[in-house]
Amino acid sequence: MPRTALLVSTALFAALLSPTAVRAAADPAPTPVDRFEGEVPFASQPAEGIFTWGSDADDPPALRLADRADAPEGERVLTGDYDISGWGGFTHDYAATGPAHDWSAHQGIRFWWQGHGDGRRIAFEIKDGGAHGEASELWTTSFTDDFTGWKRIEIPFADFRYRTDYQPVGGIDHVLGLTQMWGYAVTLPTGAGGDFAMDGVELYGRADQSLRASVTTDAAVYPVAEGGAATVRVTLATTGAAPVDEPVTVTYGTADGTAEPGRDYTPVTGTLTFPAGTPSGTSRTVRIPTLRDRAAEAAETIPLTLTVTGAKAPAETPQVVIDAHGLPYLNSKLPVKRRVADLLSRMSLAEKAGQMTQAERGALTAPGDIAAYDLGSLLSGGGSTPTPNTPEAWAKMIDAFQLRTRATRFQIPLIYGVDAVHGHNNLVGATVMPHNIGIGATRDPQLAHRTGEVTAAEVRATGVPWDFAPCLCVTRDERWGRSYESFGEDPALVESMETVIQGLQGAPDGRDLKDDDKVLATAKHFVGDGGTTYGSSTTGSYTIDQGVTEVTRKQLEAVHLAPYREAVDRGVGTVMPSYSSLDIAGDGQGPVKMHARADMINGVLKGRMGFDGFVISDWAAIDQLPGDYASDVRTSVNAGLDMIMVPYAYQDFTRTLTDEVTAGRIAERRIDDAVSRILTQKIRLGLFERPYADTSGAADIGSAAHRAVARRAAAESQVLLKNSGGLLPLKKTQKVYVAGSNADDIGNQTGGWTVTWQGASGNTTPGTTILEGIRRTGAPVTYSKDASAPLTGYDVGVVVVGETPYAEGVGDVGNGNDLELSPADRAAVDRVCAAMKCAVLIVSGRPQLIGDRLGPIDALVASWLPGTEGDGVADVLYGRRPFTGRLPVTWPRSEAQLPINVGDPVYDPQYPYGWGLTTLTKTPGGGLAALYRLADAAGRAHTAQAGRSAVEQARRIVERRIADRITAASAKPFAEADHLLLTGRYARAVRKLIEAYRAG
Questions:
Q1: Residue 618 designated active-site
Q2: Is 93 a catalytic residue?
């Protein structure tokens, strides 16, 4: 007998003997999804087909349809091989052009799987609603390969859960409707490679009412003031909003919690009935009264059990919580220190450990874990956003997390953090500023302050009180993929831009943090991350990021620590250590990861500098420390870390931390110090009084006023490197030919850390591209991205070229990146500049090598990553604003020169640090005589403004002289003059400029 027939016969015989045979007879016939006999091709959208995917080129599995004698159904099975390091799997999507399928008549989906008994988990996903299979809601579950040979895996639809970590769309209805299904996907295990075989995917069974009907409550936690009453709303919901066919009953009753019945509340019991025919959305309420006494108390809980018949019950038991009251730490009139001391004295070790724990919001096993583990903080990593990605959804999401803290004894609020490194860059529609490298080019501390204010206002309006910014690294090698996160290569420049801290936080003493437009700032990455040695990284394929910083003690103090002294003086609330290692010459330690350097965190930062905020680790950074996990926790906490970012390991971390303290390997006083620092900032932020989002400023997110600040920042960040014949500014009457890959790409223009971690090319967020900005001037414009359109008849060409987005070590030179323009960009420059006068704009996070192309280019502009406001670039191109930007880093002639920085003994760049032609005013005349007069004026200047004015005039004289013939002899003193200007040594700066003039 053929195996298929045997299986069918066996199944039929078993069914006849089964006590459920009568019910099963009424089940609809199974509906095939995949037989793998060749009826569904290997293809992808918009056609119907089976296709693979993965995190990189090696991760998609290799699929084939194989003839198998042991096939459970038919002659063929789907089989494949895989070896996945990131993530990978395969999908069957229905045709996007055809109607979706209706699976609602069935109980679930099943298929045959050939097991290996290796205990690995395989994720199975179905696609519900939306436009097509790649724009649908994803619902997921998994099964374990704990068997050998063929086994039929049956998965009821009730087992699927909405994916909270990733959705390809902005949310549809978060309901598994089953009436518009687009297919399924399988995610294969990572780690060791393997093979799989699958057959006979089909829908089975008869849907029961509990699958399409559910009972929900309007919240999981119901805080109530002592003596008040909580009202729990119980709602019946059905798929497709159809009335229920059968009655639904809900029996309820208060149960044992930490509150005492009769003393703290009046117990209630009863039954709610939803008769057959009840419409979806119908609600009933249960009222639970609490009782008042005169005692000060911690919060107390009252669970309300719900037993549901005829529908799916709520996922968790709702809890009424009588708010904590009368305790000193809740009294906002008391000094912060007294409130902190009172609360700390009441907390258990487990509660303290929870406060030191930060988890990624998408990694929560269950929302209730916030209370179960007394978590102190959540974060959104790059790209970890709510669906839809709107201000309202952010606030709603964070408030829902915050509500969970109400179910803890002391109701300590969460502090939620994001990387808003150039505006609220995680939020679609936010105002995206130039990256820090562009802000450094502005040389405008007041503007840096204003960008911080706009960022803080937009971040806080979405319910986020904490920003992992600013980055105070001093970038010393442009091969580093984080170069654009730095204000520049000179610590004096970085220090001057730290006005952004006051923009974010307000007053240095923290008194403004409670305001609805301020956030807690983070100085990162302590210390030396910008000085890592090329080739020293041991993280994956990174070449320099997270590597080793090799310095003398003097270099460490002068270059890398200086910005942190300034940040501490400015009252920065938190500091984040670097992933990198520090190797200080002569200290005998060799390279040591910064997260383990107690001498730097406890000794220098907290001790010598007097930092009184708290130290937050970087993303899973303690995992990079040598030793086992207990050692990682012990070493990092004893080194001075106060809160540990453990995105996916919060359960392991809290358990390990408490074990280490219990064993005496971490002192309780170290824990108390850490928690005191954390609680202090939470109180300063006003979170105890106002834990929920204040969205009163949400209307200003992406507003014209905020975008005006970003537009000004974009304009001031533009650095005019070359301007032969005064080509710029352009005239509106000139016919302009625009070309280049970055002329009309908002994603490239905003760079990494925009909506997602790495950023992306294309239309990622609302804004104005450089091309659109040029067109808005009213000038006659023709655009040809690749410069393939005819090139005759134009007065001037504008070619916008540069980089595509990247972040961190992914952007390291040598990790698939270099500093050269792409072949397409080089071709566009060559074509346009050979045909007409041309201006080349370089949109990038770091200098790009121009080489022998510089000659034919009439005007060259370093545009950096200007953010969403391309109008700002057009403003300087057309003279609405003058070019005033200056290089925040040295522009090299070749990659072989790197690293190259101001102050180097050998210094021969293409353009020196501080270079930037201006179209502000006419250059003063007088040559050397004028320079000597300016040196004298700078020496006699009684104000900083007068001193800076003298240096600025001298700069313009020198730039005019050496613009076409920059040499090592002129570049070195010119760059040093800019450093002297930043440090207030005006007369010496002019004397250096005289030296540059003479060399030219």
A1: yes
A2: no
